[in-house]
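Thread: sanity check for a docking pose with guanosine-5'-triphosphate

Original post by kr_44:
Hi all, I'm comparing my docking run against an independent structure prediction. Below are the sequence and the ligand SMILES. Could someone generate the full complex and paste the structure tokens? I mainly care about where the ligand ends up relative to the chain.
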Amino acid sequence: MNDDEEIPTLIEHVEETADTSSSATRRVPLTIICGFLGAGKSTLLRRILTEHHGFRIAVIMNEFGDTADIEAKTINVASEGQESEEFLELANGCLCCSIKDTGIAAIEKLMQRKGAFDHILLETTGLADPGPIASLFWHNEEFAMGLGRDITLDGVICVVDAVFGPQQMKEDSETATAGESLRQIAGADIILLNKVDLVQPESVEETVGILQGLNPAAPVYRTVRGAVEIKRLLGVHAYAAAPTLPEQDPGHDHDHDDLEHQHAPEPTHYELRGISSLLVTVPVLSPPQLEALDEWIRTVLWEQRLPGESSSENANAKLSILRCKGLFVLHSGSQLVLQGVRNIYEISEAQDTIGVPDAGKLVLIGTGLGGSRVRQSLERVWGTK
Ligand SMILES: Nc1nc2c(ncn2[C@@H]2O[C@H](COP(=O)(O)OP(=O)(O)OP(=O)(O)O)[C@@H](O)[C@H]2O)c(=O)[nH]1
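Reply from moderator J.T.:
Ran it for you. Here is the predicted complex with guanosine-5'-triphosphate included:
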């Protein structure tokens, strides 16, 4: 057994009294972990639960009973009580939460212990589409159980299997509707390409190229057993901070001409049948142009068509945006951040900005982005006076 697999020392959980400090009143960031079946999600979580990183993280796992030592321990302890859930405070300050009834109920139970931890990690079932759960936690002040007031979505991590991922993506790209693996990549803010120890370096780079083509806005970390600095995974504020968007076509950084890249100078379109992405440079905008862009985004996200185009014109290349991010610069110098998950979006004042960039950027990830019609439609927005 190596260090990674060390069974954590369990210490008795001490019931927290209501904490009235500021830590109890601020919203707790939530990170969703999704990933391909067997890609290494549990391995990543086990690492986080056992390493001494100084963060108090509550982890909600939804799959029990496999060979993972920590999961087995959790079940044993849980079965001693009358309740179907149990919380264990681990030696490194993390909380491990095993609740059969996963998702919302688990998080609700967990929030009763607010103050005992400062970050929540939620593992989704292999191949689950993270989009719906991400949009549930993002901007949900009216969320029925009030969890939206307590929780803020920090980011979505997708763990991709370096061995089987490429095949899975290929199979999913051949289905009529974009398969789940592509949706996971599209919806991710951070991608871990795991098990890179098992494949040749060239194959790793080829897969990185495909991932970046599908989702140019998410950094891709190459990992073995999920080993990556925790600060790269948590506290990334993917839904609040200005997005990190590529400076240039990431496809040109890598040698993967075998992919279907059109070497159009700019903007760039990456295509892997089904889901693809579009990265567009947005000029400095006047207020009417910003208003026109907002209307363009509304039409595309809510009506799934381009402004001025009827639904039937859209029928052949169904426009559907899974994720969008952007940074817009106004003539006044102010900078605005666009964040969107499915049909929910927000344009807000950028926080903590340094300098004013020469231009803004927009990344759209979804289906129906092929050809030049979407880019041309956007260019008409810049033409607004
Ligand atoms: N060689 C190698 N094996 C790995 C790596 N990461 C995980 N594994 C192994 O791959 C197997 C699956 O890992 P898990 O962490 O259980 O994967 P998972 O994504 O949680 O799996 P599901 O929940 O079933 O979808 C286990 O046997 C791990 O020990 C890695 O980077 N390299």
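Residues 264-382 form a domain with the Hypothetical Protein Yjia; Chain: A;domain 2 fold (CATH 3.30.1220.10). Hope that helps with the comparison, let us know if your pose agrees.
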